[in-house]
Specification:
This protein is α/β, with parallel strands linked by helices. It has 2 domains: 139 residues, translation initiation factor eif-2b, domain 1 (Four Helix Bundle (Hemerythrin (Met), subunit A), Up-down Bundle); 214 residues, Translation initiation factor eif-2b, domain 2 (Rossmann fold), CATH 3.40.50.10470. The chain is built from 12 helices and 15 strands.
Length: 378
Amino acid sequence: MANGVEQDKALQSIFYKHGSLQLLDQRKLPFETLYLDIKDSQDAWVAIQDMVVRGAPAIAIAAALSLSVEVSKLGDFSGTASDAAYFLSDKLDYLVSSRPTAVNLHDAATKLKEVVRKAAATVSDAQTIFQIYIEAAEIMLEEDVASNKAIGSYGANIIQQQQKDSKNVSVLTHCNTGSLATAGYGTALGVIRALHEKGILERAYCTETRPFNQGSRLTAFELVHDKIPGTLIADSAAAALMKAGRVNAVTVGADRVAANGDTANKIGTYSLALSAKHHGIPFYVAAPLTSIDLSLPSGDKIVIEERSPKELLNARGGLGEQVAASGISVWNPAFDVTPASLISGIITEKGVITKDGTDCFDIKSFAEGVSTSTMNKA
């Protein structure tokens, strides 16, 4: 991975043009805006693993585009179309291993592998396969922004209705789910952006989000940049904030949603959901349909990654000086799972999934309805 250069690209976490990909190094924010050159899938794997790029949608797009850059430079590839398809499939599997919890990455890889598999059955040369892959990956980039804006709109509408069209709505969010976590606009933070655009957002509260501080470093940065009224709180202050009556709704993102609605998200989300339930505050998950994994019946099957102990032992999410006692053991899971029973609704780009009369969501029926609707329009 190249050392990178400082550039003025606002809050664009992914800067892509054909044959070139740069990722905003989010470890440096909010004090330094540094873009790293991503030349191939290996660079992207390291960037995802080291949290240069993070946020489930952004990870998927960055991984897909890194392989586009790599194959755009393989003019001397001597294999057949089948060889090219195998090469791409193998690289996509490798990229998925960088962040197994984020289902968006797996979903994007699966779709792209299917594209090249079908192409290899009808195309004879490798370079055409590579070009078909590049075009498919670039379409994913465009679709992500449109998807996020739709999520924002649906989310803002349901919160506005729930608050009986109040002009003073305050929303609490966790981690970072904005432009920095996606190709643009955001999911849960996109809902907050949409409320602000409607003129009904009184205040956005963001947690610091331990242990890597994505709330204080990134979400607070986005709120200030976009001039959205925001307040940063410690993770442990959320319950007191709710008790004080200063929160009307909670909206968070998701790395993976099981078929029953159980949701894996950044560690601390479960605590917020428990507190929201106790205080009678609606708790929404905002995520694209690609975050839903119908192969998992419940959240019990979601694999939870553990992060480096340094993120707790050292300041600045592990990048600064040691602040904890040497010799202390560390448990540092990256995510927790919030049961569907604590979730009021799942906001997607196709609408809001609500409960089926029980504590669970009938996500499969919703997804099947979306697929049927899309086919009918086609």
